[in-house]
Design brief:
622 residues; alpha+beta; 7-stranded antiparallel sheet; 6-stranded mixed sheet
Length: 622
């Protein structure tokens, strides 16, 4: 088991280590982690002279007597020369000595700090009642201090004074790189993936065991190996290229400037903007790795098995009868609550004696949009009888992490029950959840009694809610069952949800490579059913697509009763279906717009023209 987790962690980290998210730290690693540890021209000469002296040692021993006599005869002159040289050496500042181990020290510091901060950082900050950004900002401050120390040597002296009591003190500017690595580990945010998700949930719940430590350390090592190679390459270049050897002061200065630039960039979240501009060339590799059944089984996605959620597997998905599946896991890692008194958080143990329905949803998810009316109806019908609904909003897209967007979406759906914004998917993974939507039904004693993944089976869920309410309060008066129409599509009756971003793309029917490096597309002569194709000049991002310079088109072949599109930006979108052209005015943050709707599912195609200024995220179907 440990070996399997070690291999998975290492491979997951290695993929992350070559992904675009690593690019912002590469210049710092190259100069301050690698080139700065190169030997200067003077050091090279000293090393060569020392080697030559060692080779000639045997020959000099044979001539020792003669040399002694000569030395005695010229002792006076030599003494004067030695005194003069010693005085000169006293006057000249000593050349700084940079450890040859610096690249390894930097990477070791990064591995240690990333592992510790990822696993225990949130727990430590929670115990100290500090904001979650403290570690990040502390890392940025350290980068600034070291950067200034590299640029202004006098400042380095002041920087080292507090550490004067430590023998062989190294604060990361010249002799040691470990502190620099610690700072980089605190600010380094690797690209998300299944391994990192598993590590995050373990750290957020404080359930850190040997398996999690193995996974974390091997992930950090895998991610660090490409950085170490880059650092060693920097040192190699600096030693081989003559201009580098002669300008060690310039390397030091460049490293300091790059460190300050990285700190400023991190402060204003510029690395994320850079990553949006650069296509994710590892996305296919990530998908293949993430979708591996061996990886899923080993990590037990969507969350690591812990003492809180280990019994959830006793629940059969979409069962029609009550089961006993252990005490409900905590709602944890929530960024913000709303629809609660004073927007204060709610803990499940506060709700003992009442039946609780935990609903995982995302406001732009078409499956959730069909499910939410049922949840809203249950809340209104049974709240007075003892039911509490908690909506855990777990985002699919980055725009779904914006609290204002979530609140607007909830208001549009008529949601008045408490909502927890789970932007880090901490609660999602603590429940080992995998679906939008998902319902976890909890009895008055706090035990999970039923789990429903996906849409449908609403009548059965409502029957179980009524049963638990009656068990909690025998003789309770319940209203009539709700009568919300079940609009869940039957199997095979609709095209599957179609994402347009490069990281989650499905149903692409064009002939081109679907990548951010492909600038133009053309409709294929023959397009498969249930697919889309592009025409014109497009910019493909990880989560959405947008025209490069002018109007561009999307052709969709579908089977559905309803076709909707998630769009954002500002402009007029036109679409043609069955010979009729219509328009939609798009404005503001991403939202779902209806294109077509009919009484029953049908097969058809629609051509959508997107103007510059509008971004398209996905097609959803009903």
């Amino acid at each position: 088991m440990y070996l399997t987790l070690a291999i998975i962690g290492f491979l997951g980290g290695l993929i992350t280590g070559i992904s675009p998210c690593i690019l912002p730290v590469l210049p710092v690693i190259f100069f301050s982690g690698g080139a700065q540890s190169a030997r200067t021209a003077k050091q090279q000469k000293k090393d060569d002279a020392r080697d030559a002296a060692a080779r000639d040692a045997a020959g000099k021993d044979a001539a020792g007597t003669a040399a002694s006599a000569t030395a005695a005869a010229t002792a006076g002159g030599t003494a004067v020369a030695t005194a003069t040289r010693t005085e000169t050496e006293k006057q000249a500042p000593p050349e700084p000595t940079v450890s040859r181990w610096r690249p390894y020290q930097v990477i070791l510091g990064l591995v240690v700090s990333f592992s510790v901060f990822t696993l225990a950082g949130s727990l430590i900050l929670a115990l100290l009642h500090l904001p979650q950004d403290v570690l990040r900002y502390a890392g940025i401050v350290v980068l600034v201090l070291i950067g200034v120390g590299l640029i202004v040597p006098k400042f380095e002296e002041y920087l080292e004074k507090p550490f004067s009591w430590i023998p062989q003190r190294n604060v990361g500017t010249e002799r040691g790189g470990f502190v620099l690595g610690i700072a980089l580990g605190a600010v380094y945010v690797p690209c998300a993936g299944p391994v990192l998700a598993a590590i995050t949930v373990a750290g957020s719940t404080g359930r850190i065991g040997p398996e999690t430590i193995v996974l974390t350390v091997t992930f950090a090592i895998g991610a660090a190996i490409p950085l170490l190679i880059f650092a060693l390459a920097g040192r190699r270049v600096a030693e081989r290229v003559k201009s580098f050897r002669k300008h060690q002061k310039g390397i030091r200065l460049t490293g300091g400037v790059l460190m300050l630039a990285l700190a400023v960039g991190l402060l204003f979240n510029l690395p994320q903007a850079l990553q949006r501009l650069i296509p994710d060339y590892t996305s296919a590799l990530q998908d293949q790795f993430s979708n591996s059944s061996q990886v899923s089984d080993a990590l037990n996605l969507g969350g690591i098995v812990n003492a809180q959620n280990k019994n959830l597997s006793k629940c059969t998905n979409n069962a029609d009868q009550l089961q006993s599946c252990g005490t409900a896991p905590d709602i944890t890692g929530i960024q913000q609550w709303f629809n609660t008194p004073g927007d204060k958080p709610i803990a499940l143990d506060q709700l003992k004696g009442r039946v609780v329905l935990v609903d995982f949803w995302a406001y732009s998810c078409i499956n959730c949009q069909r499910s939410i009316p049922h949840v809203v109806a249950w809340d209104k019908a049974y709240r007075a009888a003892g039911l509490d609904v908690i909506g855990v909003h777990s985002p699919e897209y980055a725009f779904e992490k914006v609290p204002a967007n979530v609140e607007a979406g909830a208001k549009g759906f008529g949601i008045t029950y408490p909502v927890a914004i789970d932007n880090t998917l901490s609660t999602w993974t603590n429940y080992r959840n995998r679906y939008w939507p998902a319902h976890y039904l909890i009895d008055a004693k706090g035990v999970v009694r039923n789990v429903q993944f996906g849409e449908g089976n609403y009548a059965s869920t409502e029957k179980l809610i009524r049963q638990l309410l009656q068990d909690a309060k025998p003789g309770v008066s319940l209203p009539a069952a709700t009568e919300v129409k079940d609009t869940t599509p039957t199997a095979g009756s609709t095209t599957r949800e179609t994402y347009l971003g490069t990281t989650k793309v499905v149903n692409f029917g064009g002939s081109e490579k679907y990548s951010g490096s492909t600038p133009t597309f053309a409709f294929p002569a023959k397009q498969p059913a249930n697919s889309f194709a592009l025409d014109g000049a497009w910019t493909l991002n990880t989560q959405f697509v947008e025209p490069t310079a002018q109007d561009a088109r999307i052709r969709l072949n579908y089977k559905a009763a309803e076709v909707r599109m998630v769009l954002s930006g500002s402009g007029t979108v036109s679409y043609t279906a069955d010979g009729v052209t219509k328009t939609i005015d798009v404005t503001g943050t991403p939202d779902s717009y209806e294109l077509l709707k009919s009484a029953s599912a049908k097969t058809g195609n629609v051509i959508v023209t997107i103007p510059k200024g509008v971004s398209a995220y996905s097609f959803t179907f009903g």
